[in-house]
Structure formats: C-alpha cells, structure tokens
Amino acid sequence: MIHIDGTHGEGGGQILRTALGLSLVTGKPFSIQNIRGKRKKPGLLQQHLTAVNAAATIGSAELNGAKLGSAQLVFRPQSVVAGDYHFAVGTAGSATLVLQAVLPALLGADGPSTLRIEGGTHNPWAPPFDFLQQSFLSCLQRMGPVVEIDLQRHGFYPAGGGAFCAKIEPATLTPFELCERGEVQSITATALVARLPRHIAERELVVVQKQLDLSDRACRIVEVSESHSPGNVVSIVVESEHVREVFTGFGEKRVSAEQVARRVSQEAKAYLDSGVPVGEYLADQLLIPMALARGGSFRTGPLSLHARTNIDVIEMFLDVKFAVKEHDDGTTTVSVTP
Fold first, then answer.
1. How far, in Å, CA of 232 to CA of 197, rounded?
2. Tally of structural domains, the chain
3. Which of 306, 308, 301 is nearest to 327 (CA)?
4. Same structural domain for residues 163 and 225?
5. Which residues 6+ apart lie within 8 Å of 98 measured at CB?
6. pLDDT reading at 338 higher than 90
7. What is the CA radius of gyration of the chain?
8. What does residue 325 show for φ and ψ, rounded to 5 degrees?
9. DSSP 66
10. What positions carry a catalytic annotation?
11. 156 and 190: one domain?
C-alpha cells in the first residue's frame, strides 16, 4: 500500500489523478490523506469524485472514502478492462481532468477503448479541450498510441454541460525527445464566443494581431450556439518544426476583452522569446507518458511546483527517476531514466 499526503508540494487534485492513473497501471493500491489539502475547498469535489469512480470502473477497484467532500480515500485496483465507457461530471468540473486520470491505464490496456465524458471542456482551472487535442495528444501519438478526441458540445463555467468522445488505440510507449523547437512555421489565433456578442471576439483579435503581428488571415472568429451557458475563449496556436503549443485565455465577468487577449498574447510571446519547445502546461502533461516509456527528455522553462509535485508522485509508483537540470539561461531539461 502506497501512502500519500495530499498536502505535499502543490497540494491539489493532480496528486490524486496521478495516483489513480498509476495505481491502475501498476496494480499498486494506495491511500491518500488530506486530499487537495492546500485548496480553499479541500476534499473531493464532483470532478474529482467522477475521476475516482471512472478509475474504479475501468480497474474494478475497491473504494473506501469515495464521497463528496471526503479528505481521504483508499483505492485498491484489480485489472484494467478496455471497453466503451460513459462518465458524466454533472457540473462545470473538468471533463478533461477525468480523461487525465484514466488515460495512462488505457494506453496499455489489452484492446481499444472509447470514452464519452461530459462536463466542463473549457475552464481556467484545467487543460482546455483544444490544448489536449492539438498539443498534448500530438506529442503522445509520437510515442506510439493513437488517441483521438472529438468535441461534441462546448461546456463553459459555470453551467458545464459539454461533452467529448475519446478513442484510444493502445501501444507500447517509446521514449520521447523534445529538446529543440525548430523554426516557427505559423502562429494563428481563434476567438470563440458562445451566446455572447460577436464584437467581444473582434476586439480580442485586434489586440492579438497587434501584440503578435498577425495578419487577418491568421485570425478567425468562431460563434458557438450549442453550449449551455455563455463562454469566451481566445486560443493562440504556435506551430513549430518539432512541436505545436496552444495558449488559452478565458473571458471573465468584469474583465475586458482587451485584457483577456493581452494576457494570452503575453503568454505566447514569453514562450516564443524563451526558445524552449515545451511550455509550462505541456511539461506537466508529458511527465506520466515519459515515465511509462521509461526514457526520454524535454526542454522547458522553469519547472513549476505543480510539475515537481507530479514527479514526486510518479516516482512513488514507478521504478524510474527524473533528472531536472536547470540551465543558466533560465531553461530546464527534464529527463527520465529507469
């Protein structure tokens, strides 16, 4: 039994999701105390409980403490079964984070799987659907598995109600190297509005164009009609020779369209100026598949506490070691060895 303190490091839900995924992969049971102990509302929220129940379903696990608000959980997996699954968060809680919890196990399952997950698809506290589809999964597929996700309905905070389908063709993961970005080939921007005036998107793209020196052809507006609530997202895609990165800004009440666009533009500019191939959030996502491949490396900026905490949890379950080398120019190389 692996024992985990949920206040360790960053102290958020990623500790639980990583433990769930790697418990399924290894068959090792775990207990966790003080779940999300450093959050304003600690314990299991609906999205975390959905992830726990999804992992239990896929791995025929025995559970203790799986209820809303619980600060502790015991998870004893049996065997992972590939198949067709449907999980619903029931709130605006992130559907993408539910996928994150079960994906590691299904990458190594004995057959293909299909997941339909309902909940939030675009909110500021989780990887947005577009980032997973265009950036993370494009890297993952270079490691062997084929994972395709299809957005069926947008889900914005606070109503949620989004849905996407994931198709997973498992394969043995091979080591992954991403230490050079290569030439930047294109930069494009999309401003999405759902049940909001079009002029919001227009104003956002004016700012993005100016900040990043983009042409009209590199920018587009998408108007969404099927969402359960209003929503606004600005996405900037940087396509380089060896990697695709996605940067996202979310519209908020009492925050101007110009502010939203300026923030995400500055994030994209900082990435471009850094010269690294892997941004902060992609670095987080690559850690588990690299560990499962038992090899590889990538170069990024300063490693976040979130990523360092994730490394600590991964090393509890897998017989691998991460080396984090900080360079004088402010970049970091992360490597994994058996």
1. 10
2. 2
3. 301
4. no
5. 47, 50, 51, 54, 87, 89, 117, 119
6. no
7. 19
8. -110, 115
9. -
10. 306
11. no
Q: Which residues pair with 116 in a beta bridge?
A: 86, 165
Q: What would the pLDDT profile of 156-210 be if each residue is shown by its tens digit?
A: 987 888 999 999 999 999 999 999 999 999 999 999 999 999 999 999 999 999 9
Please classify residue 187 by burial: count the beta carbons closer than 10 Å to its beta carbon, then call 0-12 exposed, 13-18 middle and 19+ buried. buried
Residues 121, 197, single domain; the answer is: no
- Residue by residue, DSSP assigns 105-155 as HHHTSSS-EEEEEEEBSB-TTS--HHHIIIIIHHHHHTTS-EEEEEEEE--
Residue 93 has pLDDT above 90, yes or no: no
Q: To which residue do tokens 């190594």 refer?
A: 108
Per-residue confidence at 67, pLDDT binned at 50, 70, 90? very high
Please give the residue range of the domain that contains residue 123.
Answer: 2-176+290-337
**pTM to 2 decimals?**
0.95
Instruction: Return mean pLDDT, the chain.
Output: 95
Q: Look at residue 221 and tell me if it is in a domain.
A: yes
**Does residue 212 share a domain with residue 129?**
no
> What stretch of H or E contains 68?
none
Phi, psi of 219 (to 5 degrees): -125, 145
Residue by residue, DSSP assigns 156-176 as BTTTB-EEEEEEEE------E
Structure tokens at 255: 């925050």
* List of residues 6+ apart from 269 with CB closer than 8 A: 211, 212
Predicted pLDDT of residue 73: 98
The long-range contacts involving 255-258, CB below 8 angstroms and separated by at least 24 positions, are 257/200, 257/201, 257/203, 257/204, 257/207, 257/232, 258/203, 258/204, 258/207
- What are 334's two structure tokens? 């992360």
